[in-house]
Every structure is written in C-alpha cells, then in structure tokens.
Design goal:
The chain is an alpha/beta fold. Strands 1-2-3-4-5-6-7-8-9 form a 9-stranded mixed beta sheet. Strands 10-11-12 form a 3-stranded antiparallel beta sheet, with no helix packed on it. Strand 2, helix 10 and strand 3 form a beta-alpha-beta unit.
Length: 452
C-alpha cells in the first residue's frame, strides 16, 4: 500500500538562512525564537523566581537549544523536518525543559487516550518552564483532568462518523465536504475535536488509495463546490504529496474552491517555506483557515509565516476555540484578534469547545462567550470580531450565537441595544402602495393588498 510519510519523500531543498542576508539581519534584529515572560493575557499565573530572569535574558529558546540540543545549528532549528523528528513526547523528554507539576505528571503518566503527546521544539520554546498555569502550556501539556469523563462528553461528539460516506470524507452540508487527509500534527492541542484519530499510533500516514477514494467521491458528487482539507494537519504532508492532492482536486470541474485548515504557523512556522508557498499559489483559488489560541503564539516567526502565505494571494482566516482560564476574557481575545489582523489574518470563527472526552476543564459557559463577543463588538474594529458558534453535538452543524440586541417592538419601530448598553429606536418603514395605483392622489399612502 502506497503511503505518504510526513517526514520523508520531500522533493524540495530544506530551507536555511544561508544566502538570505536581508532576512537574517531582520531575524537577528527581531530576536527570532525569543521567549518572553507570558503577558498579562495568559490567564492565572504562578510566579517563579526564575521567570523574570528568563524574560531579562530574552532568549529561552536559545537556552533550550543549548541545553537539550547543544550540537544543532540555527539552520537545523529552522528545518521543519528536524522539528518534527525531535518533538517532545514523554515525561523523560519534557522533564529537562519543564518543571512538571503533579497534575502534569499524573496526566502524562496516566495517558491512555488516543491523542498522543507531542510538542515541536519550537512550540516548547514558547512555554514558561516554571509556570504550569501558563495559557499555552495548559493547551499542550496534558493534566490529570484530561482523564475524567463528564456528562455529555464522547469521542465523536459531532457524529462525524455518521456523515462519512467513504473513509476520510465528512459530508454534512450539501455543497461542501470535510476531507481528512492527514492524521499527524506538529503539536497536539489537548482539546482537539478529532482526538480519536489525530496522531493515533501506527497510522500517522494516510494511504494514497484512501485519498483517491475521497477524491473519487467528490468528483462523483456534483453538488460539492467547496472542500476543506483537514486532519490532523495537511501541512505536515510533504510538498510532493500536497501538490499531488491539490492537482487531483483541481481536475474536478464542479469544485470551485479548496480550503486548508492548519495550526502550522503557530507551532511550526518554519514549515511555511518559499518552496511550499510557490507550489500553493499554483492552485488558486485556495483559502486557509488557521488555528490560533492565544496572543503569545503571535511571535515574529509566526507573523512572517502568515505574511508569506498572504503575499502568495491566499486569503487567511482564523479559528479559535474558547477555553476556560486561557482565552475566555475580552482582553486576551482582543489582543489575539487585533494581532491576527496585523498579520493579515481575518478572525473568522470563535468556537465553543466541543464536548470531547476529558474536556470539562477546558469548557467555559456559553454566557461567558456571549460576554466576550459583547465586549468586542463596538470596542474594536469589526474585522476583529469573529462569529461565535457552537458546532452542535449530534451532527447539527455550526450554529451562530449572538448577544441579545433586539429589545422589542413598538408602534414607532424596533428598539435596539448598542454596545454601550444604550437603547435606540429604528423606525421600520410602513408598507406602501405603488405610485399610480387606483385612488392615488399623492397625498396619502394605502396598504398593499393582503397576500394569502
């Protein structure tokens, strides 16, 4: 069986900083891979006497490289294949770089779920080594709470398997399909909706035969005009595999657009190479939905990766999951969404966390989400306010949620509440009769005839 391996079969040279003196100078000036103390938007913090020292020295990732990978060069660090091959997966590998809490040790030691533990060295370098309450650290390092099952949780809460006509295809909406083309991610978010399949042991690569069956289904279904490539992360595929897949999809005459869902710019920005971008731009119209959680992900590396994709003419939208104690406050979301706009990424969806198994500690209330949207609307540019949605359990699809703005109606019109809580009247137009109708003397307006 022919498969694509995400760490092999690359048909393009590895990216290095050699021969790119302008970018290298920029990298040095902006302190590439610089770790900083988590900002005030990072949620609850446990102070450490060493945290300020790291912030003052300004380069935790350099310390991480020297401590854990003393022999590697900068060009190796910037090689995405090296990053994938050297991910942190176990207590033994994480202990030298993080002061693991009892909760984290219990989560790692008792890990029995389908979703593996994996952090790229790059994403690990963004974590505060002494603060297990740091926002990004909570999203990537499992805790004991992950092993608790709460009411309403399941391994497939969205019932994607029920809407799967062939392996890898989820066909829920008439004119578009979800195409799962990869099982692997650079780093695994602990609240992942597809934790049942992402990175599962012995199945990190999807066969070309399975991909062909998905392509054949799309080709045989004329109603499908839009396909979203997801997984796993499609950008963990080699350039050759991704190019083949996009080329085959582009042969389908009724397919109007292809979207790629990815978290790569946040956890593996060196994957966005010039070779990848050059290949992607040959497959327009191509869109990307990028996953971001917290403003601390928006490093200079991440921003440059997004800008490189935008420069290739790829429209970028973001998807963010609302997470308790991590990003469920207006200040954090505002900084994240405004930062994304500066990186030319349009905030698109804010998701209520799906009720996967062991997710209770991540899920906040819907009222909290509505409060966050209310705190954004009217207090930042409209482009920075995504649509807040619940992907309905049981396969109901995305349902948008909005703060209550319509107070009621009066004989004079519609009563509305604005972002500051003030009430305004909108005068709704009364039905009017066309000019020239019988009895029209231009001085009075009669109602339209009733329609039954």
């Amino acid at each position: 069986m022919e498969t694509f391996n995400s760490l092999e079969e690359a048909d393009v040279p590895l990216r290095t900083v050699q021969g790119d003196s302008i970018n290298r100078d920029l990298i040095e000036k902006q302190q590439l891979y610089t770790w900083k103390q988590p900002s005030q938007h990072s949620g609850p913090q446990r102070k450490s006497k060493n945290t300020n020292a790291h912030a003052a020295s300004g380069s935790y990732s350099s310390e991480l490289r020297k401590k854990v990978f003393p022999a590697i060069s900068r060009s190796q660090w910037e090689d995405w294949h090296w990053q994938m091959a050297n991910r942190f997966r176990t207590v033994e590998s994480l202990s030298p770089i993080l002061d693991l809490s009892d909760e984290e040790l219990a989560g790692l030691a008792g890990h029995m779920g389908a979703l593996p533990v994996a952090l790229t060295p790059y994403s690990a370098s963004l974590l505060d080594p002494h603060n297990p309450a740091q926002a990004l650290r909570r999203t990537l390092v499992p805790t004991a709470a992950e092993h608790l099952l709460s009411a309403g949780e399941s391994i497939d809460p969205l019932h994607e398997s029920n809407d799967s006509p062939v392996p890898g295809i989820v066909h829920r909406y008439k004119d578009r399909v979800l195409f799962l083309v990869a099982n692997e991610c650079g780093s695994y978010c602990r609240y992942c909706t597809r934790s049942r399949i992402a990175g599962r042991a012995g199945n990190s690569a999807i066969s070309r035969d399975q991909l062909r069956k998905g392509i054949e289904y799309i080709a045989a279904t004329p109603a499908v005009r839009d396909v979203l490539l997801s997984g796993g992360d499609p950008l963990t595929l080699p350039d050759a595999a991704l190019n083949w897949l996009l080329t085959e999809l582009r042969k389908i005459p009724h397919l109007e657009m292809v979207r790629i869902g990815s978290k790569t710019p946040a956890v593996l920005p060196m994957r966005i190479t010039s070779s990848l971008v050059k290949m992607l731009r040959t497959h327009h119209p191509l869109w990307m939905s990028l996953h971001f959680t917290h403003p601390d992900e928006l490093t200079p590396d991440c921003v440059r990766a997004c800008e490189r994709l935008a420069d290739a003419g790829i429209p970028l939208g973001s998807q963010t999951v609302l997470l308790s104690g991590i990003n469920d406050n207006v200040d954090t979301l505002k900084h994240l969404f405004q930062g994304l706009l500066r990186a030319r990424v349009r905030p698109y969806y804010l998701y209520q966390c799906d009720p996967i198994k062991g997710s209770a500690h991540f899920r906040t209330t819907v009222n909290r989400g509505l409060e966050c949207i209310s705190g954004l609307r009217g207090h930042t540019t409209g482009y920075a306010v995504p649509t807040y949605v619940i992907d309905a359990p049981g396969g109901g699809g995305k349902i948008p949620l909005f703060p209550e703005r319509i107070i009621g109606t009066t004989p004079e019109g519609l009563l509305l509440r604005n972002h500051d809580g003030n009430t305004y009247l909108y005068p709704e137009a009364a039905p009017q009769r066309p000019a020239g109708a019988v009895g029209d003397n231009s001085s009075q307006v009669a109602d339209f005839p009733s329609r039954h």
